[in-house]
Amino acid sequence: MKVLTLNTHSWLEAAPLEKLEQIAQYLLKEEVDIIGLQEVNQLIESPDAMIDDYYQCAESEISMKEDNFAFLLVSRLRELGVNYYWSWVCSHIGYDRYHEGEAILSRYPIDPKGILVSNIAELTNYRRRKQLAAKITCPQGSIMVCVCHYSWWEQTKDSGFAFEWQQTLEKLETKDLPTLFLGDFNSPAHLEEEGYALVTSTYQDAYVTAIHKKGSFTVEETIDGWEENTEKLRIDYLFHSHDWHVLEYRVIFDGHETPIVSDHYGVLVQLNLIELEFK
């Protein structure tokens, strides 16, 4: 199984439709099974989209717009001959003009739900965080996938990364399903006793467990939210439960073998369920 995560920074990049096409062509070429996208934006004032049965509604809080980046991506993939089940949730309003959220695309049927993990419920507050979880019915059985975009680490008990991560675990209801967390965690791997250490106390980092690795960091210097950063960071991850055997971890859309499409690089992971692999 191939799983991909990318913070798209959509509609905030130069030549966004060209980048959307590059993403679509890569997904088609690699035959990616599950895709988690963050910063999936749509203009608040855009007309509503005409959606079909492949779209699985996680909530009815915000209507789908015709310029939603994920909607346009799945529409283009359909034109290229492949259909994805998909869903999207709105996390907050960004830059005073966008509904910003997370999306999941899957070759297999999904049962999605939005999970509010911040202590802020007002849509207009950029600190509001909502993750997108989906039970996915794969040929090998059911799995749980959570597409994530977290806040930064804070030294408080009721806000920031630690609070949001705990809320995720309490509300996810994995029911012992094989589980994947993918997304922008805003938690550099090299910082001790912060978000990365908290997550890896329970789940495993695919970069660490992969047999083959190509690339590591996903952010280079200054980006939105990291304006004072001067170093290479690994903040985009795929974390997994112990049910998985990770074959390969690859940084993509980094300007080497694949074009840069965002202010984040993407991550592609190939992995199998252990109990099926060794039957």
Automatic annotation (TrEMBL):
Gene3D superfamilies on file: Endonuclease/exonuclease/phosphatase
Record domain Endonuclease/exonuclease/phosphatase: where: 19-264
Superkingdom as given in the UniProt entry: Bacteria
One GO MF term: catalytic activity
InterPro entries tied to this protein: Endo/exonu/phosph_ase_sf, Endo/exonuclease/phosphatase, GPI-anchor_lipid_remodeler
GO cellular component: membrane
Protein name, as recorded: Endonuclease/exonuclease/phosphatase domain-containing protein
Species this chain originates from: Enterococcus aquimarinus
Lineage: Bacteria, Bacillati, Bacillota, Bacilli, Lactobacillales
